[in-house]
User: Which sequence fits this backbone?
């Protein structure tokens, strides 16, 4: 029998100024890996002869519902103070990954005429560790 398909993911932020908070107002998240593997070619060879690995950071993109009053995470403050924090991403019943050194790169509000008020948050993580 095959494994069940995951239906939920959880993201938790752990910060000195914000505390340890499981995100409950996050609509979506996406992690992009900046590391690359490239083929190496050599003079006189028809096929590549090996690989070169280039390091890179992970970019975590969040779409977050804006809240009235005090938000669950003040992304503007994290950006302004350049605070380094950690994040954990968990597939419920599946894999968990921690991003131990993160900083907020951008915070962009997005409003529309139907009452939808979102924040697009981009976070740069220096590494990813399986838990």
Assistant:
């Amino acid at each position: 029998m095959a494994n069940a398909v995951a239906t939920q993911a959880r993201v938790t932020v752990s910060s000195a100024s914000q505390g340890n908070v499981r995100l409950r107002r996050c609509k979506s998240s996406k992690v992009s890996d900046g590391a690359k593997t490239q083929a190496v070619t050599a003079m006189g060879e028809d096929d590549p002869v090996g690989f070169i690995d280039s390091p890179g950071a992970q970019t975590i993109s969040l779409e977050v519902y804006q809240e009235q009053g005090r938000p669950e995470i003040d992304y503007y403050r994290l950006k302004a103070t350049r605070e380094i924090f950690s994040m954990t991403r968990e597939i419920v019943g599946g894999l968990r990954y921690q991003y131990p050194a993160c900083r907020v790169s951008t915070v962009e509000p997005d409003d529309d005429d139907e009452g939808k008020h979102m924040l697009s948050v981009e976070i740069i993580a220096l590494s990813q560790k399986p838990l």
About this structure: DSSP finds one helix and ten strands in the chain.
